[in-house]
Automatic annotation (TrEMBL):
Taxon lineage: Bacteria, Bacillati, Actinomycetota, Actinomycetes, Kitasatosporales
Annotated catalysed reactions: O-phospho-L-tyrosyl-[protein] + H2O = L-tyrosyl-[protein] + phosphate
Enzyme class: hydrolase
SUPFAM superfamilies, per the entry: Phosphotyrosine protein phosphatases I
InterPro entries registered for this protein in UniProt: LMW_PTPase, Ptyr_pPase, Ptyr_pPase_sf, Tyr_phospatase_low_mol_wt
Residue span(s) of domain Phosphotyrosine protein phosphatase I: 3-153
Name under which the protein is recorded: protein-tyrosine-phosphatase
């Protein structure tokens, strides 16, 4: 049985697809690709069916990441099949906690940058949508920095489930 991780941002066209692509690559590098499923969604459905923002695609591809993606909205029923829901900022965290129907579902929700010890108290990944390419590059750097700690936490859970 796979351990399922879902990254969530606002519209599922910038931050969460970037996090999904980076983390999927990390799980493959770590030899966990058959054990961990990686996905993403948005808190809203404005972009459902759309691809990732072209600037996100460009930054991902420049860095060697896969960039195929179709946006969709996170549904409360998904909590039952997802092991870890990773919010990209405090607003997403609050929205997801409102959708959680039980304390067990709420306990699955965490901020991405909480896995980056260097992040300090600044745990939000800023939305690059209304800015230029620099914002997308900064977003990618933050996602990459947090992915190592997240991978360690997920690997620990996968190993516990395997026992």
């Amino acid at each position: 049985m796979s351990y399922r991780v879902c990254f969530v941002c606002t519209g599922n066209i910038c931050r969460s697809p970037m996090a999904e692509s980076v983390f999927r690559a990390r799980t493959v590098e770590a030899g966990l690709d058959g054990l961990v499923e990686v996905d993403s969604a948005g808190t809203g459905g404005w972009h459902e069916g759309d691809g990732a923002d072209p600037r996100a695609v460009s930054v991902l591809e420049e860095s060697g990441y896969e960039s195929s993606h179709t946006a969709r909205q996170f549904q409360p029923s998904w909590f039952s099949r997802i092991d870890l829901v990773v919010a990209l900022d405090a607003g997403h965290l609050k929205a997801l906690l409102r959708l959680a129907r039980t304390p067990e579902e709420a306990a699955k929700v965490h901020l991405l940058r909480s896995y980056d010890p260097a992040a300090g108290d600044d745990l939000d990944v800023p939305d690059p949508y209304y800015g230029g390419m620099d914002g997308f590059k900064e977003c990618l750097e933050m996602v990459e920095a947090a992915s190592e700690g997240l991978l360690a936490a997920v690997r620990e859970q996968v190993e516990v489930e395997a026992v």
